[in-house]
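Provenance and format

Records in this collection were gathered into a single text stream. Each protein contributes a sequence line and a token line. The two records reproduced below are adjacent in the stream.
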Amino acid sequence: MKQWLFLGAAIISEVIATSAMKSSEGFTKLVPSIVVVLGYITAFYFLSLTLKTIPVGIAYAIWAGLGIVLIAVVGWIVHGQKLDIPAMFGMALILLGVVVINIFSKTGGH
């Protein structure tokens, strides 16, 4: 169970870091730049803990898939970026893929 908490922490850390990257304006603003660096260090640390029990392909697929969707939501809410119907459909397919992996995969470290 803790491997899923570690994966969740990795995803949230990566989303925070990527969101701060937009706010850093090309690493010209100090505080958001520090958040980027610390966020990615934290994300990779927790991802490395996850990989002790979950296969790398499964963990990375979930990490990347959920990260894509969460970053799009943050971009929409925080930065006012628009999502069109094809983008939302594509993200729905990504989420469906994460669900399929978690429900049906026998290699997911359950």
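Adjacent record:
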Amino acid sequence: MKKLEQHFYNRADVLKIARELLGKVIVTTFQGQFTSGRIVETEAYAGEVDRASHAWGGRRTNRTEVMYGLGGTAYVYLCYGIHQMFNVVTNQQGIPHAILIRAVEPLEGIEIMLQRTGKKKLDNTLTKGPGNVGKALGFFTRHTGLSLLGDELFIADDQFRVKKGDILATPRIGVDYAGDDAALPYRFIIQGNPYVSGKKISLVKK
């Protein structure tokens, strides 16, 4: 595997990056526990102009300040007081783009993932949905600000390639509060992968 470099994250097109993250491998080594999984679902958030983004309208808080930092940084936030949601910060410093990793296909460290999630056996619920991704891969809000270029956390290319026809773009999930922006096709999935979250899709935009 080859670790993705800084320039991958520093590009301006958050949709392109979200699409290109499909098929890449996310690796965590927290407290000596190694886990990895192939990214199969992402959601792009386009910063200050995107009503679904935590940074919409230029909002800056202690939680969102990391989004304005350097691309290739982790943004982990707590959802509903339970779920640790892992996001990849992208673009140049000062532009708060981010990509939520919504689902991965487990590769290594599955026993560790089972222990973390309290599951007895592997099935597609292990890393299906961003809350399960966070739990299985060992994310906590304390990992916010962690570089994706280090050894504890990184995303890598192992030469796996997703066929263009297998990538689908759909509206994001759970952002009804975002008005017209809720309908934007900013969610990207690998069609047919059993770990992809949400309802079965009957109509999508490519």
